Amino acid sequence: GQQVKQSSPSLTVQEGGISILNCDYENDMFDYFAWYKKYPDNSPTLLISVRSNVDKREDGRLTVFLNKSGKHFSLHITASQPEDTAVYLCAEANTGKLTFGHGTILRVHP
Amino acid sequence: EAAVTQSPRNKVTVTGGNVTLSCRQTNSHNYMYWYRQDTGHGLRLIHYSYGAGNLQIGDVPDGYKATRTTQEDFFLLLELASPSQTSLYFCASSGLGGSQNTLYFGAGTRLSVL
């Protein structure tokens, strides 16, 4: 089965709004959680990550929330901008092997 | 910034063909990975390696072989290419310890199997 699931294949947000990207996982052993960003025809790059001993982490406009009991991991982007338009991939890991979700296409309209 | 270089950037072959995709990283990373990216599937791990001579099986290994000849070089081999292997292939590397899970990706190789 799919260990890491992004249930929304796409999301559209108005400029200035909050983008909320969600990820669900199955494996209790995951101890590392990350969001990668990918533009078309480019390679993925790391946006933000947390270890399993952290419930929340903020970095500028980005905030990640980790709900271990619910096996849920989310990324909130405040003051969304058109340049945030990209594919966002959640990823989880244990013992070095990173497993990615299918990705959510975020479109931020001016 | 970690440097991961893939070659070729584009490749076209026929069904049954033999293809080798190359990846080199110049940051002394121990871990290297091969992923494929397909619409509706995201990134799927094919093979990975902890170091020279080591090979680990990923989530979608069927039809692929890999070899890590040095710490810098990781190759993906398709000995009998099939149209289902048409995809965008990414190589990635990562370091040890706390940085182990931060992957640095190459630019990708687009493979078409006709």
Write the layout of secondary structure elements.
The complex is a heterodimer of chains A (110) and B (114).
Chain A: E1 4-5, E2 10-14, E3 19-25, E4 32-38, E5 45-51, E6 56-59, E7 62-67, E8 72-77, E9 86-94, E10 97-100, E11 104-109
Parallel strand pairs in A: 2-11
Antiparallel strand pairs in A: 1-3, 3-8, 4-5, 4-9, 6-7, 7-8, 9-10, 9-11
Chain B: E1 4-7, E2 10-13, E3 19-25, E4 31-38, E5 42-49, E6 56-57, E7 65-68, E8 73-78, E9 87-94, E10 104-105, E11 109-113
Parallel strand pairs in B: 2-11
Antiparallel strand pairs in B: 1-3, 3-8, 4-5, 4-9, 5-6, 7-8, 9-10, 9-11
Entry keywords:
heterodimer, A: 110 residues, mainly beta, Immunoglobulin-like, 11 strands, 0% helix, B: 114 residues, 4-stranded antiparallel β-sheet
Structure description:
- The complex is a heterodimer of chains A (110) and B (114).
- Chain A has 110 residues and is mainly β.
- Chain A has a single domain (4-109), classed as Sandwich (Immunoglobulin-like), CATH 2.60.40.10.
- In chain A, 0% of the residues lie in helices and 57% in strands.
- Chain A has strands at residues 4-5, 10-14, 19-25, 32-38, 45-51, 56-59, 62-67, 72-77, 86-94, 97-100, 104-109.
- With 114 residues, chain B is mainly β.
- Chain B has a single domain (4-113), classed as Immunoglobulin-like (Sandwich), CATH 2.60.40.10.
- Helix content of chain B is 0%, strand content 51%.
- Chain B has strands spanning 4-7, 10-13, 19-25, 31-38, 42-49, 56-57, 65-68, 73-78, 87-94, 104-105, 109-113.
- In chain B, the strands form 2 sheets. In chain B, strands 2, 4, 5, 6, 9, 10 and 11 form a 7-stranded mixed β-sheet that branches.
- In chain B, strand 5 and strand 6 form a beta hairpin.
- Chain B starts with a strand and ends with a strand.
- Classes of the chains: A mainly beta (110), B mainly beta (114).
- The interface between A and B is medium-sized, with 20 and 24 residues.
Please give a quick description of this structure.
With 110 residues, chain A is an all-beta fold. Chain A is built from no helices and eleven strands.
